[in-house]
Amino acid sequence: MSKELLNALDALEVEKGIKKDVVLEALEAALVSAYKRNYGQAQNVEVEFNKTRGDIHIFAVKEVVSEVFDSRLEVSLEEATQINRAYEIGDTIRFEVTPKNFGRIAAQTAKQVIMQRVREAERGIVYDEYIQYENEIVTGEVERHDHRYVYVNLGKVEAVLSHQDQIPGEEYKSHDRIKVYIYKVENTSKGPQVFVSRSHPDLLKRLFEQEIPEIFDGTVEIISIAREAGDRAKVAVRSHTDGVDPVGTCVGPRGERIQTIVNELKGENMDVVEWRDNPAEFISNALNPAEVIDVQFNPENERACTVIVPDNQLSLAIGKRGQNARLAAKLTGFKIDIKSESEFAKISDASDNTITNTDED
Predict the structure, then answer these.
(1) What would be the CATH architecture of the domain defined by 138-197?
(2) For 204-275, CATH number?
């Protein structure tokens, strides 16, 4: 058993990168537990492993005392000095207690410890590999699904796609190949757990980087994204190079670039708008495709504004179920109140009359 164990430890170090000393430390602790469990012992014991021959020895460690109360843990000074006259009270003495048939138990324990360390090492390797892909897009194959998750095979690990991370209305069938965004990798006791998403805003960002070289190389920058997965998204971009139209660059000739992204997201509508330093201009762009007449900011709240649009553009500016206004607010970071031109005029007139009456009083 000893030579086999040594050879196994050497192979582990070479093939799996598991240090021999790490396995031996775990093996010694496991052998102590195995000894106590199999021989009904409760004394303080130590395991000694000979790294040259592979021999295993069990020692009971006892303290030298003047009066023995527990013979499993203590030895009298009189008995100790019979072994060696140099022993004093408080010293510890090791007595070998290796059972004759302990080799079989040691072999079983060693096998269990080695297998456990191999599993841990393999899990560590997989974790180290996939933690590098956190916040990135990967392509996986749908394997199965249950009431909680869709399970996506990424190669060495099965990632989970929860309901909130799925695109509403999108169906996932076995063997479908899909692009997913890895937003979290955890190293659990059962191995690496990878969480992926199809609805995360950063999935959209990574798709833009994949399909549009100017975004990948930094010529065009994505400033913010507002997304309602499966329905509509707004992306604010700006150019860092004079003469480069950021919106046109993202849309591409005849809309080919943006269409590739739309197709990947199963028809999700995409508005690409130009970011501007001027908040009023940025808000106007964010409400695309609606036309904006004016943007007036609330003097009491610098992150709130009223947007005035033509009467015939009000419903377009607000959008279906308020979606256009909601996405524009999320994109810009402003609370946006949209008013039609005629409605705003009435409010302004009423306000002017109030001021005039106050002045006359």
Answers:
(1) Beta Barrel (2.40)
(2) 3.30.300.20
- CATH H-level, domain 290-361: superfamily: K homology (KH) domain (3.30.300.20)
Residue 106 contacts residue 54 (beta carbons within 8 Å): no
**Hey, what are 230's tokens?**
């499966």
Sign of CA dihedral 173, 174, 179, 185: positive
Neighbours of 240 (CB within 10 A): 11
Confidence at 234, pLDDT banded by 50, 70, 90: very high
Give the tokens for residue 142: 């749908």
E-strand spans in the chain?
A: 45-49, 56-65, 74-76, 92-96, 136-145, 149-153, 158-162, 177-188, 191-197, 220-228, 232-239, 269-274, 294-298, 301-309, 335-340
**Cβ contacts of 87 within 8 Å, gap of 6 or more:** 64, 77, 80, 81, 93
Percent of the chain with pLDDT over 90: 60
Domain ranges of the chain: 2-129, 138-197, 204-275, 290-361
- For the domain bounded by 2-129, which CATH number is listed? 3.30.1480.10
| Token digits of residue 303 | 């992150």
Q: What contacts 200, CB < 8 A, 6 or more positions away?
A: 165, 181, 183
Tokens representing 56 are 């295993």
Reported as half-sphere exposure (CB side, CA atoms, 13 A), residue 119 has a value of: 10
pLDDT score of 352 more than 60: no
Q: What is the spatial distance between Cα 171 and Cα 176, in angstroms, rounded to a whole number?
A: 10
